[in-house]
Structure formats: C-alpha cells, structure tokens
Amino acid sequence: MILSILIRYGVPQETVGLLGVPLILVKILVPFFITNTNHPLIWFYRTYFPRLLMCIFIAIYICFTPMILSQWYFYPILILLFLCNEATIYLMLVSRVGFCARISDPAVGGTYITLLSMVGNFGASLTTSIVLYVAGWIQPETRSYPILVGICFLCGCIWLWTQYKTVFKLQALPIEKWHLSSMKATDEDAKETCINDNVHEQ
Q1: Going from the N-terminus, what domains does the chain have, and what CATH number goes with each?
Q2: d(Cα 123, Cα 80) in Å, to the nearest integer?
Q3: How far is Cα 21 from Cα 24, in angstroms, rounded to an integer?
Q4: How many CA atoms lie within 13 A of 75 on its CB side?
Q5: pLDDT given at position 141
Q6: Which segments of the chain does DSSP mark as H helices, in order?
Q7: pLDDT tens string 7-18
Q8: Quick one: which of 108, 132, 155, 157 could link to 112 by a disulfide (CB 3.0–4.6 Å)?
C-alpha cells in the first residue's frame, strides 16, 4: 500500500523498485542481534511498540510527500524510515521463528517447527487480509492510509497492553513443557498401568 501511494504521488516506479535494495542488508544483519538470546519471545514483545511507532512515522512522512518530493532530503529520509521499519519487522519475524525453533521437540524433527511457523504465518496473513479488506471500505479520495494506520496502531496498542502477561508466561515455560515426548511418556505410563491392572484382575 505504501509503494502504491508513493507512485500515485509521483515517485517513479523504477525508483520505488530500488528502495527495496538497501533492505537486503537489514535482513542479513538483524539475525546477529538475537543469535545468543535465550528469550526470543521477549524480543518479539519489546520490538512490537517500536514497529507501531515506525508505522506512524512513515504515515506522517507519506502525507507530506507531495510537498517535499522535490527536496534533496526526501529519498534519504524515506530510505532511513524504510530501513528502521524493516529492521523491526524482521527482528520480530526472526524472534518468532527462533522461539519456535527453541521449543520444538527434537524427537519430531522439522514437523513441529513447521507446524508452529505455519500457525504464526497464518495469523500474520489473516490480519493482513482483514486490513486490506477494511481498506476497501475507505474512499481513495480521502486520506485512507493515515486513517487505516491510526486504527491499526490503536489495535496494536490494545494487544500490547492485554497480552504482555501471556507473552512472558509462554517464555517462562520450561522447554520440556512444549515437547510431545512428555505426553508420550504419560500415555505409556497410562497403558502400563492398565496392563498391570488387567494382570492383577486375572
């Protein structure tokens, strides 16, 4: 949506395509910041609000695009905003994937982490679809992008306020609680108990 608005304001499509080149550097460097962390879900939570703020900053800057498009500082500031925004997005993504990798049961292999990642990706895709659907209700002539950003910012703040206990609780759980092997051991114990009961009855 941001790129389409920039094109509408007169930014050439070739230039819009080149804006994504510096973002590759962010995707390479960001994982190094949380490589040795033992609390990836806490990183995810603490990066949430900076990401919300970046959406506000970008929305404000986009609104002033028609007035400052011809200025020399327009593209450097725009690239800087995109870099910061991409850093928060990718930091949250790597934190979430890192948490899934940390709690996955090694006895199951990659199936467990694939399932967890699929659930996370489904949640992200669902919210994106909802936002795009709501955007269709707003007339293009109005300032639909700032309105939509404001609504999403409010929803994000509500989630941040109401779910922080859940995030810290999930992070504090022992890794063994996430493993299916403990459930399997419980089932085997139950089966053994039933067999012993049957033997005694006979």
Answers
A1: 2-201 (1.20.1250)
A2: 28
A3: 6
A4: 12
A5: 53
A6: 2-8, 13-18, 23-33, 40-63, 65-68, 74-103, 110-135, 144-162, 164-172, 180-201
A7: 888 888 888 888
A8: 108
